[in-house]
Amino acid sequence: MVLRMTRRAALRAFGGLTAIGLALAAAGLAQPVLAQSGAPKGPVRIIVGFPPGGGADLLARLLAPELQQSFGQPVVVENRPGAQGRIGTDLVAKAEPDGQTILMATEGAIVILPHLPEPLPYDPLKDLAPVSLVVRTTPVIVANPSVEADSLKDLIADAKANPGKYFYGHSGVGGPNHLMFELLKQKTGAKIEQVPYQGTGAVIPAVLSNEVPLAIGYLPSFVPYIKAGTVKPLAVTSGERASAMPDIVTVADAGVPDFDMSSWLGMFVPAGTPAETVTAIRDAVVAALQKPEVRKSIQSGGQEIVGSTPEAFAKVVQSGSDNYRDLIKTLDLPKQ
Amino acid sequence: MRLTVTRDLLAGLLFLGLGGGAALMSSSYRFGTILRMGPGFFPVTLGLMVALIGLVVTARAIVAPDGSPPVGTIRLRPVLLVSASVVVFALLVERLGLAAAVAALVVVGSLAGPGLTVRGAVAKVVVLVAIAVAIFVYGLAIPFKVWPW
Amino acid sequence: MVSDVFANLATGFSVAFSPVNLLYCLLGVTLGTAIGVLPGVGPLVTIAVLLPLTFGLPPEASLIMLAGIYYGAAYGGSTTAILVNLPGESSSVVTCIDGYQMARQGRAGAALAIAAIASFAAGCVGTVLIALFGPLLGGLALEFRSPEYFSLMLMAMVLTAALAHGSLLTSIGMAMLGVIFGLVGTDVTTGVERLTFGLSGLGDGLEFVVVAMGLFALAEIVANLDRPEGAREVFTSEVTGLMPTRRDLRTAFGPILRGTAIGSFFGILPGAGQTISSFAAYLFEKRVSRTPERFGEGAIEGVAAPEAANNAAAQTAFIPTLTLGVPGSATMALVLGALMIQGIAPGPQVIVQHPTLFWGLIASMWIGNLILVLLNLPLIGLWVRILRVPYHVLYPAILVFSSIGVYSVASSTLDVLVAAVFGVLGYLFARAGCAPAPFILGFVLGPMIEENFRRSMILSRGDPMIFLVNPISATFLLIAALAILAMIVPSFRRRKDEALQEEAA
Fold it and tell me: Which parts pass through the membrane (chain C) (predicted)?
């Protein structure tokens, strides 16, 4: 079995379209800030494993000027796209642990790729040190309006009664969206066939035109269509409802207990980076996340601001990795 | 009979090699059926078709060598040195930085052409390194390692 | 309805026409052109590099500057196609064919001018089309699902092979080879990595600029250095006129109109609209021309038609991009990202929700086109002077710029190495008389043909009738079948051979 995220799946890993409204805050009047003792001592690179324009890239570009102000050092965003984020992640994993190379990661390269058959040149749990889980986004399951079922419960019942009646579109084989829907199928026993697309950008017209009656993708990408009534939302996959659209029920609400799958963007540094440097970076991120213009940019994109501690992030990474390992093992994914 | 290397013969052999190679490389991917294609279906089928075209073109070139103009002498110096200059750039740009990589590219690349003098090479290196650094590093702020140190 | 359109356009122009905004547009066009003309730095890299400049501006200024960058970068890509035989993106591949020949004959000025004029004319028509029909045409893209896309792209491939320059068999072979190279990378349907030699850097497939640098720029440099001593003059020293003659303009008039029509139609289809439209416009002109043998030898129609088509398609491509949120190309995806930063969320309501921004964008596009022409016509003298640089200085400079350009797409040294491999391959193809254009079309369309075929088969549960019961798809297949039939029918074949002999003579 070989499976991987496709390029676009990775590009859109946090929904390229989730970027809606993520603005580069104007640097504003620079106030001299006392750099903390652990702050990086030289120019800082934030590495993004995807091309410019994706969710990770835009978040990095949003935070870079803020970090620059905190550190008193130039902070640049560097795109190292390729191989679903492997290339950028590997670069950071092998960089000097001095806080001057920071990874803005999507969950794919950290908790999913290690469990796919292709060997990785790095071990995300050993070679990288978590700094902070910056934002979360939930996927949403949507249906073309012509689908009769109005709730996930009805849909699952119908799909079980008529195996093979439904198809769902997702943004790439082995990507988080694909795996989450497969988990849903596994938990409910519904037979719904998967149709892979190159990224959420291609999934949207497919469900609008009813080429596939169902689709899964990050909520922010679908918000305009949900508002226009051209797709109907069935459920979000996270454990809690999304603050951007609290009317949409969760999969757990729809009768699949303990279903809690959401995606994150977070920062890592090379393992071995001094603890005070990790703390300094995390503090700078949290300070940036408290600025109203930064908050507004992120929230208007439909993402949830987190800014966790390194310890909390480490737990999320560990449990996410365990979950995906078990999931990938048990799923009946398409074989090569 | 002396075999002239005609354009068709070269084209045929290229198709045969590239098509056959692609088919061979793809033979390990699941083939599937025409209605349920695996990842191997397209590359294997196309590879074989290209190889077949190559076979026909090659045969035609051997049977009727007058049908296509001869390739003529292939001088290896330009093609090898031009490619080598690009390879040298690729190998050096991250290790020794942009300036050294451009300098090496210009020197190796210039060897591909005629009448290179030391003074000419130095002039070209200085000018092109200056332009490249000015445009890409200062102008466009692309994060390059510029100098070897 | 029509008065609405004028009211809307007036709103748009009042937004875009402030002196400050015009200045931003001029700045965008200037920078876009200046960077886009660096060989090997295609529109994608140009836009990616310049995009951050627009982020800090107010929405209207940002949009108009973006429009300037977009058109400047696209024109810069065509400029390198004409001057140094290096297309910036796949839609300017056909511009190379006759544009570069014109440059070698001392007519680079006319080629560059006609490209700018054709782009502007097409841009005007495209703007009006979006204004009149944009909201209506948004839905058309939804009529195209996997079977339609498969059939459309197959038809485009068949037609290109049927009408291409040179031997039919080698054209087909090159197109198929292009498809094979297009398949390199991760298979969308199964996630399997194919033909990557185990290099994870190839997992995302081959970049267009990598292939173009090798097959076009490197192959051309080697071919020039390869010539026997006496025949080494690459560009004639007799440069005739910087501007097109009245006769040139008359000749180009029809091709510009037809190219615009073809481009406007294909641009609406997301995916490969721009590439298909420039190829289609070129082939159509060659077909209707009374002197098809001039094509490939520096025919001005061969520059005018694809440039018009390409720009019209770039314009109408905004319709699906804005109304469906589906970017038609990698370049468009970047533009879309910039729009979203300005709070324009693509989607069905974009026009209603943000009328000033939407109509402002449309007005900006037109102004961007206008400034492009005004800026570039006087600059043509400067570009043409580049060709007077002695070739032994010019070619190392092309090597430097294109190597850096290819490297900066993804900071990948592997990409540069692959370009070198394609250089050798391109040289061999050139010596074997195999034209690279069908290869590029296969390279761009092939993976989409495969993906859409396989998706159609999943959705129809393995019933191939899905391609025939659907009228749009069936029509495309019928045209493709007729073209194949015409190739096989001997009388046509004879005529083609005669035409070829004339060309050879």
Answer: 6-27, 34-57, 63-87, 108-133, 153-184, 205-225, 261-284, 324-345, 357-377, 389-410, 416-445, 466-489
